[in-house]
Each structure stands twice: as structure tokens, then as C-alpha cells.
Specification:
360 residues; alpha/beta; Rossmann fold; Helix Hairpins; Heat Shock Protein 90; 5-stranded parallel β-sheet; 5-stranded mixed β-sheet; 11 helices; elongated
Length: 360
């Protein structure tokens, strides 16, 4: 989008852009500061060319305003003449580049646009990689903490069980006392099972990687969840299931992960008048994407932020380990899992798995 209150300058820019090729760029014009600010909030464009002098404010003011409101799209400031101080202010405000109009020509414009977009895309990939690395580190930390907790709890728990068994031999004729020892045993067993669930969610057993079919895995998942889908009268839609897509993975572990996601979607649609569940499979040469969408209650920002953390749950009686297991399984398969959600509008999980690789 071009933000410039001078129509002649705007037309000059469109001439240069047209010389780049109609298939390369399409453009929109905002002829004032206020119009530019409004349209930039819509986040519909791939790059912004912003004139420095805009009457009601400067291009630097506009860049500051848009950046403060979360606009990360590349922004290039255009000025009548070169000025080092304006250049510095523009970059500090959040501009991707600075271009004097006196130097403007087709070659310079193409280079500036291309470099700004490439730099932006590289930053996105870098941030994504950093986020995945942070998740992996969090999982490793959670796993270590789980092993420490399990060790510290199971040692005294073993002593409690041994002492309870020994005590039982002394009170065989006291029914009321025996009742209490049974309560102790059941409680100990419950604690032990909770520890086992924690360890299983943070430290997966060694996976058996084989060539498997993602369509069959997803059909098996839906079969496992079918009773709940039917019971809650959920409308199920599928797309992309007609192909035969193979990947290297552990079918049982993948089913566990996807059952957790589908179950989460089903539970999110409680009390919805017309619950709908949709599963879409998409493929590229190297990846298969599985999108699981619902029109349920959705999640707030805090829930999305902590969703994959162990013990975080918004469900009554839930342990908060299901989504931790999902993330561990997918990362173990060298894949990624993302969640998009909005309160009262539903949730979409996007899982991407490599088609031809996996851990062994």
C-alpha cells in the first residue's frame, strides 16, 4: 500500500511499480495520514510505502503508531531528499528501510521492496525457530522436574505401602481399622498412577518409527472418538482424506496426540446449539498439514499462552497433561503444532509433520 498525500508522487510510484510487472505487485492508495493509519490496522498488505510529509503528521509518526499497535509488516519511508537524522528516526520507529525520492527508479524500488520482504520473511522464520527451541527446552525442563518429583514421592510412598501391609497383619480382626488401611492403599495407588501419568506425558517411551498412512491414522482417531461425536450430535466434515499419504512415524503415538486434540475440540463444544468439527488434510512435497477446527467456546490469550504447559488446565477434574503429550509427540516426530483461537468463535489446531523423515 502507498501512503502519500501528493497524487503526482503517487502516480510516479505506480509507474515504477507497473514497470516491475503486473504479476509482481498490486497496490492500494491511502491519500492521508488518517486513511493510512486506518488501513494499516487492517493488516491486509504485504508492504507499505509511506511518504514522510503527510499533513496531519509525519510518516515516522504513522510508522510509530502502526508498530505500537502490532503491525509488523515491512514499512519503507520515502522522503524528498536524503537526511541521515530522518533515516535514523525512521529505523528507530520501526521502518524496514528509508528511500529518498531523488534516488528513486525502477531498479532501486525493486531492490528495496525485495530486500524488505525477504528480511521480514527471514525474521518470521527466525522467530518461529526460536519459539520451537524454547518449547523444546521447556519440555526438557518439565521432564527433568517430573523425574525428580517422581523419585522424591515414590520413595516415601513405597514405605507407606510396606508399613500399611505390615500393619494389616496386626489388625486382621478389626474391620474398622482394616477399612482405614484400604483407604490408605487406594490413595497410595492413586498417587502412584498420577506420577505414572506425569512421566508418560513428559517422557515418551521409545517410539517405533515405521512407514504409516496419515489418512488411516486420522480415520482411526475419528473411529475412537465416534461415540462422543454421535452422542453430542456434532456435525463432522472432512477433506483431503481421499489420497494415500505416507510418512515416517509411530502410528500409536500419533493416534494418542490426535485423539487428545479431537477430544479437546469435542469438549470445547459443550452446550453449543450446532457443534461442528472439521478436519482438513493438506500436503506439500515435504509436509502434511492436519487442521482440526471446532466452533466451540474458544480460548483467551492466557489459555493459548500456557496451553502446552504441564498441569495447566481449564477443565474441572483435568490434570492438564493432554496438550503436553500432544506437543511432545509432535516434536518427537520433528513436526510443529500451532493453535489459533478466539473466545466464542472456536479453535483450530494446525499440526505439520514431515512426510519422509522422523526420529529412530
Amino acid at each position: 500500500m502507498i501512503v502519500d498525500d501528493d497524487e503526482e508522487d503517487y502516480l510516479l510510484l505506480t509507474d515504477y511499480i507497473a514497470e516491475l510487472g503486473e504479476d509482481e505487485y498490486s497496490f492500494e492508495w491511502a491519500s492521508s495520514f488518517s486513511e493510512g493509519a486506518r488501513k494499516m490496522q487492517e493488516a491486509r498488505h504485504d508492504i507499505y510505502l509511506i511518504d514522510h510529509w503527510l499533513g496531519a503528521g509525519t510518516g515516522i509518526d504513522l510508522i510509530k503508531d502502526a508498530t505500537s499497535k502490532g503491525c509488523q509488516t515491512p514499512k519503507i519511508l520515502l522522503t524528498g531528499v536524503g537526511n541521515l537524522e530522518i533515516d535514523r528516526q525512521a529505523i528507530k520507529a520501526g521502518a524496514s528501510d528509508y528511500l529518498p525520492k531523488t534516488l528513486l527508479n525502477t531498479e532501486m524500488l525493486e531492490r528495496t521492496l525485495r530486500h524488505a520482504i525477504e528480511h521480514y520473511e527471514q525474521n518470521i522464520l527466525l522467530k518461529k525457530a526460536e519459539k520451537e527451541l524454547l518449547r523444546a527446552e521447556q519440555i526438557n525442563l518439565t521432564s527433568r522436574m517430573a523425574r525428580i518429583i517422581a523419585h522424591e514421592v515414590r520413595n516415601p510412598l513405597t514405605n507407606i505401602n510396606l508399613a500399611t501391609d505390615e500393619l494389616g497383619s496386626f489388625i486382621q480382626n478389626h474391620e474398622e481399622a482394616l477399612l482405614y488401611t484400604e483407604i490408605i492403599k487406594r490413595s497410595s495407588e492413586r498417587i502412584n498412577n498420577l506420577i505414572t501419568d506425569l512421566l508418560n506425558s513428559t517422557r515418551l517411551a521409545e517410539s517405533v518409527m515405521v512407514e504409516c498412512n496419515i489418512e488411516k491414522i486420522m480415520n482411526d482417531v475419528l473411529l475412537l472418538c465416534n461415540d462422543r461425536i454421535q452422542l453430542k450430535k456434532i456435525k463432522l466434515s472432512k477433506s483431503g482424506f481421499e489420497e494415500d499419504t505416507t510418512l515416517s512415524g509411530d502410528p500409536d503415538k500419533l493416534k494418542i496426540a490426535f485423539v487428545n486434540i479431537v477430544t479437546n475440540a469435542i469438549e470445547a463444544m459443550d452446550l453449543m446449539a450446532k457443534p461442528e468439527l472439521r478436519i482438513d488434510l493438506d500436503r506439500s512435497e515435504k509436509w502434511v498439514s492436519i487442521r482440526i477446527s471446532d466452533n466451540g467456546h474458544g480460548m483467551d490469550e492466557n489459555t493459548k499462552k500456557h496451553l502446552f504447559e504441564a498441569f495447566f488446565t481449564g477443565k474441572n477434574g483435568g490434570m492438564g497433561l493432554g496438550m503436553t503429550t500432544v506437543q511432545n509427540v509432535i516434536l518427537h516426530h520433528q513436526g510443529t503444532v500451532q493453535v489459533e483461537s478466539e473466545v466464542s468463535k472456536g479453535t483450530q489446531f494446525i499440526v505439520r509433520l514431515p512426510r519422509h523423515s522422523g526420529n529412530t
